[in-house]
Amino acid sequence: xxxxxxxxxxxxxxxxxxxxxxxxxxxxxxxxxxxxxxxxxxxxxxxxxxxxxxxxxxxxxxxxxxxxxxxxxxxxxxxxxxxxxxxxxxxxxxxxxxxxxxxxxxxxxxxxxxxxxxxxxxxxxxxxxxxxxxxxxxxxxxxxxxxxxxxxxxxxxxxxxxxxxxxxxxxxxxxxxxxxxxxxxxxxxxxxxxxxxxxxxxxxxxxxxxxxxxxxxxxxxxxxxxxxxxxxxxxxxxx
Length: 239
Hints:
By secondary structure, this protein is α+β, with helices and mostly antiparallel strands.
């Protein structure tokens, strides 16, 4: 890994948190070493080929052995950086919790079905590492509508926000705003190996589709669910 994240004084974490507040996102260029990136790209290509050229996703690290993604959630520098960004943004110590990690590999007919669905994450901070980005056609840019809500005090408040967004009318209106070139929406072209941060909980976001014969693969590491201890959340999940 690129250990630019080593930040014992918290200076880098503070600067990144300030960049997210000001610009909607922050980025560390070329965070992943070239050989580690190539290994992850080969893994993605093999996984999509094994699935008939269609979308495939991985949750957690169990099936990612042999790639840097298997070790990243335990990397002390990466963990410290994410906790530092969280602490600067929220104004209190970061919780000692792990990451919810997903590797999304868009390709084939399923690429469009997994695109242009605006949503809020359940976690305060989202770290995104592009593994493969299409070099032709639609590049599958990340779309961010930054800071459209605050941290809700209760899980029910968070749930209401999600219900108001996850419906046909809201999605149609957001897509119309996107097609009309809304200046509030950030259209972020991604570079493989970079490390991007944004407030996934507070910002509506989605991705543009890529062409069916292309591949768009991104690793997402979500940190700190503010409602992890909610009794209501646990009860709803049991149902």
